[in-house]
Amino acid sequence: MIRHMIFWNLAEENADRVETERFLKETFAAMVGAVPGLRAAHIGFDQWLGTHGVGLSCDLDSMEALAAYQDYPPHVAFKRWAKVHLKDRCCVDLEVAE
Predict the structure, then answer these.
(1) Measuring CA to CA, how many Å separate 73 from each of 48, 55, 79, 82, 96?
(2) Is residue 91 part of a domain?
(3) Average pLDDT of each block of 10 consecutive residues along the chain (98 residues)?
C-alpha cells in the first residue's frame, strides 16, 4: 500500500479555516471510492505544533493507483485550486504494510 502525504501552508493568513477545511474534506471524500485504488483520504489543519498548516494523507493500493489519482479530473481541478490558495508544498509517498 502507498501512503501519499502532502503538507502545505495557506497562501493567505486570513483565509477562513472553517470554510477551507470543509471544502477540502468534501473534495477528497468525494474521491474515495470514485478513484480506483484510493482507499482513504484524511485532511485537516495542523494542531499548531508542526511546520505546515494543512495536511493530507491518502492510502492507495499501489503506485499505479497513485498515478491514476494524479490524473483524475477532480484531483486535477483541486491542484489548480491549490496553486492559488496553498503554498510551501511538501510531499512524500511511502510504501507501508497493511
Answers:
(1) 32, 21, 10, 14, 26
(2) no
(3) 97 91 95 96 91 96 96 96 96 95
Query: Distance (Å, rounded) from C-alpha 26 to C-alpha 74?
Result: 11
CATH number of the domain that 36 lies in?
3.30.70.100
Hey, what long-range contacts does 41-45 have (CB within 8 A, 24 or more apart)? 45/17, 45/21
On whether the pTM is more than 0.85, the answer is yes
Answer for the pair 62, 95: CB distance below 8 angstroms, yes or no: no
CA distance 53 to 75: 20
68: containing domain: 2-85
